[in-house]
Amino acid sequence: MRVLAIDTALEACSAAVFDTERADLRIHESMQMQRGHAEALMPLIARLLDRASLDFSALDRIAVTVGPGSFTGMRVGIAAARGIALAAGKPAIGLSTLAAFAAPFIAADDTLPVVAAINARHDHVYLHVFGPGGQTLVSPRLVSLREALRMSATGAPRITGTAANMLAALWPAGERMPTSVEQRSAPNIDWVARLGAAAIDTGAPPKPLYLRAPDAQPQDAAQLARR
Question: Which of 155, 150, 148, 104 is nearest to 128 (CA)?
Fold first, then answer.
């Protein structure tokens, strides 16, 4: 299966071409950035397909991270994935950013819990806690740091994501320390591709995973009166 993977949900613009049947066809590129994903993404994808000597019609599916993450960044990646899927007549698969953070740890050792956490600012994080076998112990949600620590401090977990260092620094005294802490600004795009290849195609187009309302809200005073 040939997968085009896209991630623009956080502080990187990344894409990968991954073939489950060809170890030599695994090409990726990632650029660290907080803004400018919309301008960078399509040229990046074009470079990868050119290096792989493929066009969109040769893909079997498109995988994209749907959040949580930056509202603008998420929408850039999702719009690109849906547009490519529509043009190529291939399915698009949406994947949680938190699951993409956790995937390499679960694959390496599924006996220890994994805590994936993304900094949501204002002393909150987006959190997903995985237990043995990769089973969800705490489903994706927006919680305060205090709540995140209470939900995470069990079984010497491995912590990853943009808020990994934040959680580790506040780890409760008396609890078993985390087995490992990996601060990352974005998921590994190769694992986005692997998850995309393994995911079940529900037939539904990917949509943003919003765990809270946008910071920017329309002002009532700015609305025009209806006639």
Answer: 148
Angle at the Cα of 32 (from 31 to 34), degrees rounded to 5? 125
Write the pLDDT tens digit of every residue in 165-223: 999 999 999 899 999 999 999 999 999 999 999 999 999 999 999 987 655 455 554 45
CATH number of the domain that residue 140 is part of: 3.30.420.40
Domain limits for position 162 = 98-183
Let me know if residue 35 belongs to a domain: yes
- The full 3-state SS of 94-147, as one line of letters, equals EECHHHHHHHHHHHHCCCCCEEEEEEEECCEEEEEEECHHHCEEEEEEEEEHHH
Q: Give the torsion sign (CA, 139, 141, 143, 145).
A: positive
Q: How many residues in the chain?
A: 227
Contacts of 213 (CB under 8 A, 6+ apart): none
